[in-house]
Amino acid sequence: MARALIPSDTTIRNIKPGDARKRLTDGEGLYLLLFVKGGAHGWRLDYTIHGKRKTLSLGTYPDTGLKLAREKAEAARQLVAAGADPSEQRKEDKAAHVRAREAEERAGAGLPSQGSFEEVAREWYALHRDDWAPSYGDKIIKRLESDVFPWIGRLPVDCITPPQLLTVLRRIEQRGVVETAHRALENCSQVFRHAVASGCAPSNPARDLKDALRKPVVKHFPAITNPVRLGELLRACDAYQGTHVVRTALRLMPLVLLRPGELRQAQWSEFDLDAGVWTVPAARMKREKAGKLNGKPHIVPLAAQAVAALRELYPLTGPHGYVFRGERHHDRPMSDAAVNAALRAMGFGADEVTGHGFRATARTMLAERLGVVEPVIEAQLAHSVKDSLGRAYNRTEYHDERRAMMQTWADYLDRLRKGADVVHLKHVA
Question: Which end of the chain is more exposed for a tag (fewer CB within 10 A), N or C?
Answer without folding.
Answer: N
